[in-house]
Amino acid sequence: MKKKVGIVCGGFTSEYKISLQSGQTVFNHLDTSLWEGYLIKLQPDNWTAKDKNGISYFVSKGDFTLIKNEEKIHLDVVFNAIHGAPGENGQLAALWELLAIPFTSCSSYTAALTYNKRDCLSVLRDLKVPTALHYALDKKDSIDLKAIEKTVGFPCFVKANRAGSSFGVYKVYNPEALEKAIQEAFHEDSQLLIENALIGREVSVGVASLKGKTTVFPVTEIISENDFFDYAAKYEGQSQEITPAKIPALWLEQLKKWSEIIYNRLELRGVVRSEFIFVEGIPHLLEINTVPGMTARSIIPQQVEVMGMDLKEFFTLLLEEALTFNQNT
After folding, report:
1. What are the backbone dihedrals phi and psi of residue 181, each rounded to the nearest 5 degrees, phi first?
2. What does pTM read for this prediction?
């Protein structure tokens, strides 16, 4: 009997449209001989679902069932494709944990930790993971431009602490532009992370537990046509993404080591993608995405293809892993 899969997308942040594309990719490539898929779209005031025939359902916020008239569908597993809140920050994970519904992403605690760039990087520094110089700033704090410059220097990045897809990220070259960038980033989040701009080659690494084994995907090198890997570079084709990356074998060994450490020590689940920049041969972690993009332009599908796997098989492995994990806990 086919398992019922809810592919959850949308959400409450600026990444809403990207998430819809990711969810549609998963829905389109689901192996219908194994799974009965429902595309679930979440908006702040409207939770709805559709099946392959276009039939619409209301999604219950209480037990996450799909309801149409007298019919009530209980999901066997959820594929989480929401970038940002409430899918990537742990809110939905907490609901699914309470309801004992298996899902493809990490636990509510780990999701909340990794979604908060400052907290996550602080934990990883204790594991000796190399990172950029950093300065934390909250909206309620006074802005000390001299202290920021002394800590991180120029150029630097001003980043919304809890956001993705490069929303709320600004590269700053001088003190005059710093305060403006800070105010702009505060439109995205009340917490900011300001880091020195690492100069080097940028790479992206996918990792997933597949058939019970932590698997590091072929590495992608990112060469942006813009000043950095911003939204346009990610989603509008203004970058080169080379998979597999043409980098030294020693660099690949370091990426594999750090990626496995991060995945296992943080108890990550499903597929994640981490960004690094090599500075003097050392990979410095930028961030971790626990619900990475699955759009036609996204990096993970490129890496999956290089692994010799199609998306139908890949999504099945992720769903099977989620079901297996739930049975073992």
Report:
1. -65, -40
2. 0.90
Rounded average pLDDT over 72-94: 96
Picking from 266, 275, 19, the residue whose alpha carbon sits closest to that of residue 132 is 275
Please say whether the dihedral angle defined by the alpha carbons of residues 14, 20, 21 and 26, taken in this order, is positive or negative. positive
pLDDT mean across residues, the chain? 93
Token pair for 94? 């907490």
Give the range of the structural domain holding residue 221, as residue numbers without chain letter. 112-130+198-328
Regarding whether 291 and 259 lie in a shared domain, the answer is yes
- The answer to whether the CB of 82 falls within 8 A of the CB of 9 is yes
Strand 201-210 to 156-160 pairing: unpaired
The answer to which of 12-16, 232-236, 286-290 has the lowest mean pLDDT is 232-236
CATH number of domain containing 95: 3.40.50.20
Would you put residue 69 in left (φ > 0), alpha (ψ -120 to 50) or beta? Answer: left
Does 236 score more than 60 pLDDT? no
CATH assignment at residue 122: 3.30.470.20
Share of the chain above pLDDT 70, in %: 95
- DSSP-derived 3-state class of residue 38: strand
Same-domain check for residues 167 and 316: no
Helix residue ranges per DSSP H, 72-157 = 91-99, 108-115, 117-126, 145-152
Total structural domains in the chain?
A: 3
> Is the domain of 21 the same as that of 39?
yes
CA distances, 211 to each of 5, 77, 184, 323, 329 (Å) = 19, 17, 44, 11, 16
Cα R_g (the chain), whole angstroms = 20
At 329, the pLDDT band (50, 70, 90 cuts) reads low
